[in-house]
Amino acid sequence: MIRTLGITYEHKVEHDVPLDQLMNGQYAWIWADFMAPTPEESHLLDTLFHFHPLAIEDCLHVLQRPKLDFYDDYQFMVVHSLDALTLDTVEVDLFVGHHYLVTYHHKDLPEVNSAWEKVVRRANERRIWARGPMSAAYLVIDDLVDLYFPCVFSIEDELDELEKKGSRESVEDLMNQVFDLRSRLLKLRRTIVPMRDLMYRVVNSEHIQGDKEPRAYFADIYDHLLKLTDMIEADREMTADLRDSYISLNSNRMNSIMKTLTVITTIFMPLTLIAGIYGMNFVNMPELGLKYGYFFVIGGMIVLTVAMIMWFNRRGWFK
């Protein structure tokens, strides 16, 4: 589907402008949004707008990293939207010219719809910032970045819950949750860091259309991405600390178990020796003829056990 928007020189908004009238110069600027386009509609990027073949190829192949390319009379940007549930990325391509903005994406995105509504509302209010395609591009990217925050906040909430219930679950379950969080943070980082680098190029590039005002707005997006990057790094450090804590806790538990088993084994070693000696069934064993020999041996084994337990306790083995 292709939807179009034309802003006249009188600041009027015209919806669903016919494609053959988009580039005839009667509009101050236009916005064409390609949403899940068909192959025939995608072909208009070449036949109607005459974009560079490499830029069109980047639109058709959705495995691109965020990027910024400069052509003769327009800039081509690749940015990413995030699915809040799966953290998968959805590519959004933007062609920003002097008098047009073309957006291209393979899914219906609420961020693009929100930016579309803002442009219409601000144009009707005759606000200067709504007059240019670069402003619309800013609104799209700003809404994309704003939806990164709930994804990061959600992981931080899970980290807080994980810290609170750390003593009520098994170490294995806790470790699985920590590694799941680290995996999701890595997916976020792979999206946000390239977006941060892209905004750095936009803010510091001499080729971006417009001067101070657009740059100030894009600098605000860059600040948001810096904050998101710092939050992700802090969360990754927290998960690393939790992982190390759980590994230490598991090691302490294993050491405690091994110490208990060692004490039990040590106590039974002399008892096993005594039982083995008197279980050899030799004929000439003087103690076998004693009337109360069995009780003496059992009593001696009990006394030996109690003495060893008392000695281990004084050595602090049971602490």
Automatic annotation (TrEMBL):
Record carries keyword Cell membrane: yes
Entry's localization field: Cell membrane; Membrane
Topology within the bilayer: Multi-pass membrane protein
Keywords: Cell membrane, Ion transport, Magnesium, Membrane, Transmembrane, Transmembrane helix, Transport
Membrane-crossing residue ranges in chain numbering: 261-280, 292-312
Job description of the protein: Mediates influx of magnesium ions.
InterPro entries in alphabetical order: CorA_cytoplasmic_dom, CorA_TM1_TM2, Mg/Co-transport_prot_CorA, MgTranspt_CorA/ZnTranspt_ZntB
Family: Belongs to the CorA metal ion transporter (MIT) (TC 1.A.35) family.
Gene (UniProt): corA
Metal-binding recorded as keyword: no
Organism, scientific name: Paenibacillus shirakamiensis
Protein name, entry field: Magnesium transport protein CorA
Matching Pfam families: CorA
CDD domains membership: TmCorA-like_u2
PANTHER family: CORA FAMILY METAL ION TRANSPORTER (EUROFUNG) (PTHR46494)
